[in-house]
Amino acid sequence: MNTTIPNRGFNALLASVLAGCSLLLASVPASGASAPLRVSFNVFTDALGNRPATGNLDTDEEIQAQVDRANQIFAQLISEVRIENVGIADLRGVPQWYMVTNDANTLTSLQNTASVNPQAYQWRNDAVNVYITASNVTAIASLPPNNNIILMGQGVFTTTLAHEIGHILGLQHTHQNQGAGCTNVSCGPSCTTCGSNCTTGDDGFNDTLPDASCWGANNSIALNSFGLNYNQLNAAQQALVDMTWRNLMSYHDPDNRGLLSDGQMDRTSIQVSRDRWSLYSKVAVYVNPVAAGDFRDGTFIFPYATILQALDANPQPGRVLVLSPGAHSRPAILLNPDALINTPLDIVTRKGTAAIQDAPPAYPLPTALEHSTNRPVREAIIAARHSARQRDIASVMAHLLEAERHAAGAERSAIQLELGQRFRAANQFATAKAWFQKAADGTNHEALRSHALNQATAMEIRAGQPDRRRPETNSVPKIK
């Protein structure tokens, strides 16, 4: 059985929730399983203790809208990151910050002041500290390794918080290090008003294109990189232009930007790993079956190869397993209904869909014995199938016994296991044990022998503890 889980994560307390099915994991919502980045919001007030009366961040609702929009963007990106709003508070008693601008010097000064006066500034060492002013400016954030503060003003766009969190996660602007003649003003497709000193910048990723913040249309990116208008580009070239123009870390169309390239996504996950013990309320543990190398610590750079490795190495609560896209083998522990994962465990995916599926069979056995080249076996199996359609269980068992008498090798082992399973279902546990024991004695395949012996042992235990709720079924023949 395959179970598709669209747009949500997977939460397991009992291992048995995975038994019997393959799980397809896609993206998760803001409130679902994720690697939650703690973010604390503090609003500077004036000398009278008042917030600004107008603006885009003067109410709790507007602040929460920034959080919701950011989480929507991260969900659409299939990122493991979500913003956890740990509180919104007014910050009184420090009115000197009420109308400050958002330049790098002011940010550094605030960071230094607040971190050594945590009570006065409600500073948290375990969260990103967002301070909101009354100034009509947008925002500025600190980059790693001191990535724990954002300064926001009342002129923010709907995606500003998401953009600044991008910086917290280690991302630069798409126009990083552009020339001094570039300013954040719209200048048309030819960009003739950007200034003579406007040279493009670059964020260091090869899956975004050189950019300038003053470009007013995607045609400027196309002309700069390919020497063609956007509508003359092929699909792959247009996709690169779109990735840059609509990029979350660009200055273009700031109320609608929201893309990140594969390279940018990987950079964010690297930073999540670095900060997972300090800024996140759940520890992200990465799993990637195709990762190279023998060293594994669950970071994005050195992920575990299997889910079982991740479970064994991280027994503490508050984990979130972050799966790479593709197929992951389901650990045997998750097939055992009596086995517990005794702490809450979230499983999410990043950059695509991941499937948790059974591992290949431990031993090869034939299943379509109606096509056996052994004629007596083939005829007995065909007769058993006919009796099964008639719901004549006694005849089914008789035909299987006949097939077993004529079978050899792997075919015989398969029929013996089938007989053991059918007698087990009929609560004839002693008979079932005998057939499982026969299967174990008749094979040289170690995994098959181990399985059959385990089943025989289980039947011996069950034979001594009869289940009174299900009396022995007399419609199957007794073994002699």
Outline the secondary-structure elements.
Blueprint lengths: L1 E4 L4 E5 L7 E4 L9 E10 L15 H17 L4 E11 L12 H13 L1 H4 L6 E5 L6 E3 L7 E4 L7 H9 L49 H9 L8 H11 L16 H14 L7 E5 L19 H7 L5 E5 L2 E4 L10 E10 L4 E4 L17 H15 L3 H14 L2 H17 L3 H13 L4 H18 L17
C-alpha termini separation: 38 Å
Strand order of the largest sheet: 5-4-6-8-7
Radius of gyration, CA atoms, in whole angstroms = 32 Å
Number of spatially distinct domains: 4
What is the CATH first-level class name of the largest domain? Alpha Beta
Helix and strand string, N-terminal first?
EEEEHEHHEEEHHHHEHEEEEHHHHH
Helix content: 25-40%
Structural features, described:
With 480 residues, the protein is an alpha/beta fold. The protein has 4 domains: 1-24 and 291-360, no CATH class; 35-171 and 269-281, Collagenase (Catalytic Domain) (3-Layer(aba) Sandwich); 175-259, no CATH class; 369-463, Serine Threonine Protein Phosphatase 5, Tetratricopeptide repeat, CATH 1.25.40. Helix content is 34%, strand content 15%. It has 13 helices and 13 strands. The strands form 3 sheets. The chain has a 5-stranded mixed beta sheet with strand order 5-4-6-8-7. A 4-stranded mixed beta sheet has the order 1-3-13-11, with no helix packed on it. Helix 9 (375-389) runs antiparallel to helix 10 (393-406), helix 10 runs antiparallel to helix 11 (409-425) and helix 12 (429-441) packs antiparallel against helix 13 (446-463). The radius of gyration is 32 Å and the shape is elongated. Mean pLDDT is 86; it is low at 1-23, 26-31, 186-192 and 335-340.
